[in-house]
Fold this protein.
Amino acid sequence: MFAAYASRIDRDQPLNGLELGERPEPQARPGWSTVTVKAASLNHHDLWSLRGVGLGEESLPMILGCDAAGIDEHGNEVVVYPVVGLSGHGVGPDEPRSILTEKYQGTFAEKVSVPTWNLVPKPKELSFEEAACLPTAWLTAYRMLFTNAGVRPGDSVLVQGAGGGVATAAIVLAKAAGLRVYATSRDEAKRKRAEDLGADAAFEPGARLPRRVDAVIETVGAATWSHSVKSLRPGGTLVISGATSGPNPQAAELNRIFFLELKVVGSTMGTKDELEDLLSFCAVTGVRPVVDTVLPLDRAREGFEKMAGGDLFGKVVLTV
């Protein structure tokens, strides 16, 4: 079957390890299902995999891709929940959880095999392309907002780095839930897009906000950390799920954190139940993922190049 896969690790030039070509089809195994992939979406996790983060040389070649929507062997339209081992189904109770492509072959292929427990029904209201955007970036944003930040309608939130998959999702979801939304981006066009998506206002990074916010959605890391902490009201919550600009900010702002009793919460992915809630939320409200580009799988390299260069707003989707 045709697939996009990592053939080698290159920490400095990750796309040098990306190959497009034939790979073996997944073999049947007890407790697992094979899904015929209709659409899959890119995440920064795929670039990090090519750099060797969470993926060792001993596991190569590895088909990339965490997210997919498709049809199972019984003809059901499904969405793939990408965390394997969370429940023990299909792998046993002692196996630590992993995300697809860390240990098991991923979704950038004609077929993917996952534990049957990892399949979630796709709502008829969502296309395969839309549903394929949700399991990683959008699920991460959903958990950050509604589980870990605990925001409620009427609260305010700052989303750092508008344009990235998680940040874009957070803007859309927060607005649909009745929050006041501020966003930042270095790029004027992305600030305008953030406002078009529902942000009440968008600013350059580091700008003073009209008011301090109840929560900050942080995926940028070192470059925006200080601004994120300073933007919170007393008792507010900073939720971080990534550090694309690096993990070591110049100032940790510890005095401000303890004096104002701020909360700093780490967040990774989300649960299967949260994915089902997110799918239902989108189906009922009409909220849809923001898609930057749709490409056929054989043009996957173009999608990787767009993501590596930061030249996108929303998700890159690969169709099979």
About this structure: The chain has a mean pLDDT of 96. DSSP finds nine helices and 18 strands in the chain. The longest strand covers residues 32-41. Residues 134-148 form the longest helix (15 residues).
